[in-house]
Amino acid sequence: MKKLLLIKSAPEIFLKGLNRNKFERLLKKNIAKKLEGIEYEFITDMGRWFVYSEDLEEACSRVRKVFGVTQVCIVTQIERDYEEIKKLALSKVIEAKASNFKIETNRANKEFPKNSMEVSREVGGYVLTNYEGELSVKINNPECLVKVEIRDKAYLYTKLDIVKGEGGLPYGVNGSTMLMLSGGIDSPVAGYMMARRGVELHCVYYHSHPYTSERAKDKVKDLAKVLASYTEKVNLYVVPFTEIQMGIIEKCREDELTIIMRRFMMRVACELAEQKGIQSVSTGESIGQVASQTMEGLIVSTDVADRPVFRPLISMDKEDIMDISRRIGTYDISIRPYEDCCTIFVPKHPKTKPQVEPIRKSEEALDIDALVKEAVDNVEVYRF
Ligand code: ATP
Ligand code: MG
After folding, report:
1. Are 103 and 192 within one domain?
2. Is residue 329 a contact partner of residue 226, using CB atoms and an 8 Å limit?
3. What is the Cα–Cα distance from 52 to 163, expressed in whole angstroms?
4. Taking the model in full, what pTM does it have?
5. Interval between CA 182 and ligand 2 midpoint (Å)
6. Structural domain boundaries enclosing 124
7. pLDDT of 35-79, one tens digit each?
8. CB 341 less than 6 A from any atom of ligand 1
9. CA 219 / ligand 2 centre spacing (Å)
10. Which of 131, 164, 197 is the last residue of a domain?
11. Which residues are listed for ATP binding in this entry (predicted)?
12. Is 192 in the pocket of ligand 1 (CB under 6 A)?
């Protein structure tokens, strides 16, 4: 008798038809990467995936973080022996201290002489007969649900043995994005949400030295590290942004500073993405959250993008975004009190309903291409 992890993946993965092999290969590879550094064995039994390790707890906490894994079940493996299955089911019900139960069987191995219904009924009967104390069978929502899987070996587990996984789709299966990562609460959550759906993540941070300190940069690096703990690796591109901001302040109207700055952020993100072969751009914007995130503001900043811009938080409330950031471990870093470049260059009365044409006109005072090139040429790269 030994304990293993049974790994369950997103049902969506199995809807992908011809891509199923690719999905499975990627998921398996990502699980292997997460388990690097600990001794483990990967076992396949009639299509189901299991992991054995001396340090099952650590293996479980790592595997549950892999995108595409919906559940990790800590199962007990025994030989495919009917008497042993019955005894183990009984001990599982005793362990659960429940007053009602149900047996649910999945007989994948047709060499086993009983079908799933028969096993459930007979094992249930055995448990009822041999249990000391009050116990009944309950079909809907039983206190103790014993799952029996009959494959080459047999595996048993109950609801108590199920750990929820991160969900989503295998990392890397859905293209790539350049996330604008600031030190705030929102953008790390946006990055997590894109990565969770299988999109490969690259990050760009605009740094306004000396107006923003090294500590502000460290904060963004720490956020990128947390994101990298979910993905396999993350590249963080730090772009010097002071020159651009100074140019805007000198040459443009005060109420247009914010929107023009945002357009430059977008241009630089797209240019970097182009150079690195990254397909899209993502931000942590949410409609109406601040004065610059109005419909018009978003339209005018998207105007300069040459690829799709994704804003996964667009319809979310701040409270819900904060809940996710706490859960994924970025919140405490995000609330460290260091200024970001946007808080230093905020105009008193920013335009909340900018229009594309007048903004394009205002930008004619600037050498846009040279400013973008200068910023992109001086990017620093960090790998996490
Ligand atoms: P966040 O909490 O993500 O900082 P926010 O609510 O503070 O967002 P803004 O400061 O207006 O909103 O920024 C909106 C989005 O623009 C951010 O979510 C982020 O994607 C991007 N962004 C803002 N500042 C920077 C920066 N210095 N470097 C990289 N991206 C940035
Ligand atoms: Mg911010």
Report:
1. no
2. yes
3. 16
4. 0.90
5. 6
6. 2-164
7. 999 999 999 999 899 999 999 999 999 999 999 999 999 999 999
8. yes
9. 12
10. 164
11. 180-181, 205-206, 262, 284, 293
12. no
